[in-house]
C-alpha cells in the first residue's frame, strides 16, 4: 500500500506556501530522490530533493533549477 506524507514549504521562486505529497515508500535502498514539480502558484519548475535518514525521518529541500 502506498503511503504519502504531506509536506509544506515555500516556493523558491515566488515565496508562496505550497504543499507537496511525498512518497513515504522511500526506504533504505533508496537514500535520496530528486525530481521536478511545478509550483502550484507560479507554475515554475521546482527541484525537489528528498532524503531519509537512518531513523526514518524525511528531509525535503526545494530549489530553483539554477540553484540545483
Helix content range:
under 10%
Count of strand segments: 5
Distance between the termini: 32 Å
Q: In angstroms, what is the radius of gyration?
A: 12 Å
Number of helices: 0
Judged by helices, strands and strand pairing, the structural class is: mainly beta
Q: What's the shape?
A: globular
- What's the structural domain tally? 1
Assembly status: single chain
Tell me the series of helices and strands, N- to C-terminal: EEEEE
Strand percent estimate: over 45%
Give the integer mean of the pLDDT values: 86
Please describe the biggest sheet, giving its number of strands, its sense, and whether it closes into a barrel. Answer: 3 strands, antiparallel
Describe the structure.
The chain is mainly β. It has one domain. It has no helices and five strands. The strands form two sheets. The chain has a three-stranded antiparallel sheet, with no helix packed on it. The chain has a two-stranded antiparallel ribbon with strand order 1-2. β1 and β2 form a beta hairpin. It is globular and about 35 Å long. It starts with a strand and ends in a 5-residue tail after the last strand.
Amino acid at each position: 500500500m502506498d503511503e504519502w506524507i504531506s509536506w509544506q514549504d515555500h516556493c523558491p521562486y515566488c515565496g508562496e506556501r505550497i504543499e507537496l505529497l511525498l512518497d513515504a515508500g522511500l526506504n533504505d535502498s533508496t537514500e535520496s530522490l530528486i525530481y521536478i514539480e511545478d509550483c502550484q502558484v507560479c507554475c515554475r519548475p521546482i527541484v525537489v530533493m528528498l532524503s531519509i535518514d537512518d531513523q526514518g525521518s524525511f528531509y525535503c529541500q526545494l530549489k530553483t533549477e539554477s540553484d540545483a
